[in-house]
Write a structure and sequence with these properties.
128 residues; Arc Repressor Mutant, subunit A; mainly alpha
């Protein structure tokens, strides 16, 4: 199991889910865990970040949906070993060509930042 030392308690209550994603992303980029590594338990992450389970679960659900994390029932949540970039193509083109509101622009930003994470994971895999 990975010890995510870089994680700190979140003080800004306005966008907890976004802040959780940012902190987990930063931990990935800094190499705190490698492809396939298991994250701390929900309870441990909630304690470490100072957030509730619902916010943490929403952030993990988002990272699962884009392929950064994999949750295995009864086993825990893991950093994906391999990530397909195909999941992004239709979403990105739709958001670039047809942004309808600030939320669309925000979602595009999240997707682009996630791609940076994916590249970091890929580079980490090459080092293994």
């Amino acid at each position: 199991m990975v010890n995510l030392v870089a994680l700190t308690r979140i003080k800004n209550q306005e966008s907890l889910v976004n802040e959780i994603i940012i902190q987990l992303s930063q931990a990935i980029l800094e190499g705190d865990f490698k492809p396939g590594d298991k994250l701390l338990s929900e309870a441990q992450l909630c304690e470490k970040l100072g957030v509730g389970r619902n916010s943490l679960r929403e952030a993990i659900k988002m990272l699962n949906a884009i392929g950064v994390l994999e949750t295995k029932r009864g086993q825990g949540t893991f950093l994906a070993k391999e990530i397909s970039h195909d999941v992004f193509n239709p979403l990105i083109f739709k958001l670039i060509l047809e942004p309808k509101c600030a939320k669309d622009i925000y979602e595009l930003r999240v997707l682009l930042e996630t791609m940076v994470i994916l590249m970091a994971i890929k580079k980490q895999q090459l080092r293994i």
